[in-house]
Structures are given as structure tokens and as C-alpha cells.
Amino acid sequence: MRSINKVIIIGNLTRDPVMKVTQSNQPVVTFGVATNRQWSTRDNQKHGSTEFHEIVAWAKLAEICDKYIRKGNLVYIEGYLKTRSWEDTSGEGKRYRTEVVVQDIIMLEKRKHDGEQDSVDQEMEAAATSGFGGGAGFGGGMGGGMSNGSTGRSSDEPPLDELDINLGGLGEAISQDNF
């Protein structure tokens, strides 16, 4: 039986992207996005809730995110869910984090300068056609587990060097050692 793992969100960045580089020199960024939901009850009372999502982007798409998006920007993101697990370094047991791995991203806010917008469009088109998967329109990019050669990670951050890499849109899992 087939299954689907697809996420589409439109929301605002809760923090600036943080760029890291894997042991195999693959760029990866992480950032947060908040989405809001509003509804009314039968007696016309308005309610709302906010969800916070952890986002990961890879390769050229990671570089574009690092360069162009900032806290507060409104973005459209397409991707898939991936849950990572790791042993807590403080000995408190196993930890888990579910993230959205970006396959496509569109910046929904208008740019101040037309020339800047053209540059962004060209870079995103290049990322979409670079052979690392991709979605419709802008974006695309490599998705999957992370590998991080940096130190100074807090105990609630997963060890990023133990995970696989999944090429978004290709459906083929390969080992980090293959890069």
C-alpha cells in the first residue's frame, strides 16, 4: 500500500536561519516557522492557536535561505516530515525531533528592489534544476538527515553525523559516506 509524507505550510520565520556545513561540505540551514489557525465556535467566540515547526534545508537551497530569508519573513514551504532521534549527552535517555525537510520554498513578501528579485528568482531556479530534486516553481534542494562537524552543540540538539541523506524527490536513501 502506498503512503504520502507531504507538508505544505505558509508562515513566518521565528528566527534567522542558522547555516552549518556537514563533514562532506554539504550546506544545511535550520530555522523555525510559525503558523496560525483561527476558528469561531457556534456561539461566535473567536479562538486561535499557533504551531511552531522546525525546518531544515539542504545544498543550494540552504545557501539561498541563509542569504535571503530572515526572522519575520512570510514563506511558503513544501517538504516532508522526518523524525530524528539521538541519545542525550546528559544521560537522560533518547531524544526526538520532527522536522520539515524543505523541497520547495517561496518567499511571499515583495522585495524592495526589482533587481534583487530577479537575482533571487535566478538563484532559486538554478537550485530547482540542479539535480537535487525540487518542487514546482522555485526552490528544490537536497533533503534528509544532517551531518554536522561543528562542536558546541547543546545536549538537546541531536548528533547530526549519524543520519542518512535522502535526495528529495528521488526516493533513494544513501549513506552520508557516499557524498
Account of the protein in words:
The relative contact order is 0.19. Helix content is 14%, strand content 40%. The radius of gyration is 17 Å and the shape is globular. The protein has helices at residues 59-68, 114-128; strands at 7-13, 18-21, 27-40, 46-58, 74-87, 94-107, 143-144, 165-166, 173-174. With 179 residues, it is mainly beta. Residues 131-155 and 158-179 have low confidence and may be disordered. A hairpin with a 6-residue loop joins strand 5 (74-87) and strand 6. The strands form two sheets. The chain has a five-stranded mixed β-barrel. It contains two helices and nine strands. It has one domain: Beta Barrel (OB fold (Dihydrolipoamide Acetyltransferase, E2P)), CATH 2.40.50.140. The chain starts with 6 loop residues before the first strand and ends in a 5-residue tail after the last strand.
Number of strands: 9
Main sheet summary: 5 strands, mixed, barrel
CATH topology: OB fold (Dihydrolipoamide Acetyltransferase, E2P)
Written as H for each helix and E for each strand, in order along the chain, the element string is EEEEHEEHEEE
- Gyration radius from CA atoms, angstroms: 17 Å
* Count of discrete structural domains: 1
Task: Provide the residue-averaged pLDDT.
Answer: 74
CATH architecture: Beta Barrel
The CATH class name reads: Mainly Beta
Shape: globular
Residue share in helix: 10-25%
Q: What's the CATH H-level homologous superfamily?
A: Nucleic acid-binding proteins
Strand content: 35-45%
The first-to-last residue Cα distance is 31 Å
Low-confidence stretches: 131-155, 158-179
